[in-house]
Write a structure and sequence with these properties.
Helix content: 40-55%
Order of helices and strands: HEEEEEHH
Low-confidence stretches: none
Structural class: alpha+beta
Strand content: 15-25%
Largest sheet: 3 strands, antiparallel
Number of helices: 3
Shape: elongated
Mean pLDDT: 78
Strand order of the largest sheet: 3-4-5
Number of domains: 3
Radius of gyration: 40 Å
């Protein structure tokens, strides 16, 4: 029985010391804030910073940093040329060029982003809208010319059938131009 008593006291002492150690660890953890573990997607041009204080944390993440890369070049040119008749010709020129590039290597020309052929998204949008407007205008012009002008010119002897075709083509062309003009007024192109 004595061994069981000593075993119980020893086990109680071990559990008590373990509880005191766990409580001490938990109490000491309240002094600092542990930010959550977040695995940021990292790449060649990404960056992030984390600020932690007693009130919480602040995370700043940039997926494409730097957004632009710069290239600077300068040229100093000084040249003296003597003319054929004794006149002096002096050139003193300084050139400086600073270019910005996106991460993809496209040169920034101060406007919208351009594709490989030099067209911006707005230019491409305008081209697509103009093509659709011309198509719709051409269909409307052909329909109007076929319904109005073609019957009127069909009565011309010998060439009526040919004049009706010309009227339809003329309506197609006029409708296409009118569709383009209306689209440019509406789409701000």
């Amino acid at each position: 029985m004595k061994t069981l008593k000593y075993l119980g006291i020893g086990l109680g002492a071990i559990v008590g010391v373990a509880h005191i150690g766990a409580l001490g660890h938990l109490i000491s953890r309240k002094d600092h804030v542990q930010p959550p573990t977040i695995n940021f997607p990292s790449g060649r041009y990404s960056s992030y910073s984390v600020e932690v204080d007693k009130d919480g944390y602040k995370i700043e993440y940039k997926a494409n940093d730097p957004k632009t890369l710069t290239s600077e070049r300068s040229l100093d040119l000084k040249e003296n040329k003597k003319g054929f008749f004794g006149g002096n010709k002096t050139t003193d020129r300084t050139e400086y060029r600073r270019d910005e590039y996106t991460a993809e290597g496209v040169r920034n020309i101060g406007g919208a982003a351009v594709d490989g052929e030099g067209k911006s998204a707005k230019d491409i949008e305008c081209i697509v809208a103009d093509a659709g407007a011309r198509s719709q205008g051409a269909m409307a012009g052909s329909a109007i010319a076929t319904g109005v002008a073609a019957p009127a010119v069909m009565g011309i002897p010998y060439i009526g059938w040919l004049a009706a075709g010309w009227a339809t083509l003329l309506g197609n062309n006029i409708g296409s131009e009118a569709g383009s003009i209306v689209n440019s007024a509406i789409s701000d192109c």
